[in-house]
Structures are given as structure tokens and as C-alpha cells.
Amino acid sequence: MQQHTLLPEMGYSDPGEFWSQVKEINRQVNGDEILTYMQHLVAVFGETLTKERFREHGKQLPFFDGVEQWFPRINAFATERGLALEHYIVSSGLEELIEGCSIRKHFRHVFASKYAYKDGKACWPAIAINYTGKTQYLFRINKGVLNSWDDTAVNRWIPMEERPLPFQRMIFVGDGDTDIPAMKMLRHQGGASIAVFDPAQFSGRDSQKVYNLIAEDRATYVCPADYTQGSQLDVVVKGILGRFARDAGYRPR
């Protein structure tokens, strides 16, 4: 998310330069890359990083084809089959950018990396969601704990049949390496994991990633990130929702 408008405006005409710096710093400190990138943003641009500025950049984020029309259409499909469909975000990206997106209104809750602020300026990472951290937030959704601070509630034992949103009724759509542990965990809990990829970037390297996701049993499905009606992703998600509805007793007339 940062590379589309935020980093270029801050002087990184090649956003790859910023990420190369992050990787080098991270090697030196032997740290967590999510924390390192967030701290590096503060170190370089701290005086200018405000919630308002992040949200303005969030408004400019581009989407894959069909994303903005996806939610009303898929919600209507679920409602017709007696399903109450909810959407959540679990992201290593910045909550402040997501809050500015036009699609934010469609999500019940957003779990994402975010800053603490002093005098209106970002000063340090308050939440950094990394690879395995994403699995924690799936458990929070599963148990109905929609915050990041209540560790007692998320660790409390609740019988599977009493949890508000069973894993078996979840669909996780991920597009990055940080999504892999969550995809695999959800798959093994009986849910559905869908790995999506940018069809314009499907090079030899990306095709190898797709191969590995399937061969290593990490994703249930792999689809191009095309959210338009009738796309492969559209058909797969509707098929999964149709199975949920059938298992709950729905029968087409």
C-alpha cells in the first residue's frame, strides 16, 4: 500500500529503494521486518506522518478490477441463500491507509499495523502484524474479540460450537507472503484459503509461488485477483458460499 503514493511523494521515486533499506536495517538489528519498516518510516518522515496524511494517501490506493463492485454483489448472493456475510481485514499494511480507502465501509472490523501518536504525529508502532501474528487475529474473529488489547478474552477456552464465527465458515483471501501461515492454519481448521495473484505480474517467479502454495498444501484455491462478475475468483467464492448455505439447510427452489 505504501508504494503507490506515500513513498513516491516522500522522495522515493523507486519504492524498492525504501524496502532495500528496510531489509538491510532489519538484518543489522536482527529484527521483525514489519516493525522495522514502520520505525524506518518514522525515522525518515516522522514530522510529516499524521493520521490525516495517511488517510489522504489511502483515498488514492488503486484496486484490482471489480473490487469496488464486489461487496454489494457478493453480499446479495449470500443474503439470497440465508447467509449473514461479514468482511474483515487482517493486514501487515497500515490501518491509517486502509481507513482512507473507499471500500473501508464494507468491513466490520480492520486488524492492521498502526502507529501510536504524540501531538498528532506518528511516534512508534503500536501494532505490528506479521506472518504468524495474522493467525492470532483469525482467532479473535473466531471468538468475537474485535480488539487488539484483550489477551484474556482471546486466550479463554470456548467450545468450538459456541464461537461466534466458526473457522469452517471462514474464507481467507491473501495475496502476500505474510498471508501464508494464516492460509494454512485456516485450511487445516476446515475453512477455505484462496491465494490471489496479480495477473499482470504472473512471471516465472510468481508462477513458482503459486505452484508451491498448492504443492505444500497451504492454499485451497489459487486465482487471479480479478473481482469482476463471472471471474474465476467470483465463481470460486460463490461456490464456497453455496456450500456453506447447503450445509446450513438451504435448497434452491
Describe it:
The protein is an alpha/beta fold and 253 residues long. The chain is built from eleven helices and six strands. The protein has helices at 6-9, 15-29, 33-45, 51-58, 67-80, 95-99, 133-143, 151-155, 180-188, 204-215, 232-247; strands spanning 88-94, 109-118, 121-127, 171-174, 192-197, 221-224. The strands form two sheets. The chain has a three-stranded mixed sheet with strand order 1-2-3. The radius of gyration is 19 Å and the shape is globular.
Features:
253 residues; alpha/beta; 15% strand
User: What fraction of residues sit in β-strands?
Assistant: 15-25%
Strand neighbour order, sheet with most strands:
1-2-3
Helix content: 40-55%
Query: How large is the radius of gyration?
Result: 19 Å
User: Counting H and I runs of at least 4 residues, what is the number of helices?
Assistant: 11
Number-wise, the strands total: 6
Given the C-alpha coordinates, what overall shape results? Answer: globular
Terminal-residue CA separation: 43 Å
Q: Give unreliable regions as ranges.
A: none
Q: Look at the structure and give the mean pLDDT.
A: 93
H/E element sequence? HHHHHEHEEHHEHEHEH
Major sheet size, sense and barrel closure: 3 strands, mixed
Short description, anyone?
44% of the residues lie in helices and 15% in strands.
Give the SSE layout.
Blueprint: H1 6-9, H2 15-29, H3 33-45, H4 51-58, H5 67-80, E1 88-94, H6 95-99, E2 109-118, E3 121-127, H7 133-143, H8 151-155, E4 171-174, H9 180-188, E5 192-197, H10 204-215, E6 221-224, H11 232-247
Parallel strand pairs: 1-2, 4-5, 5-6
Antiparallel strand pairs: 2-3
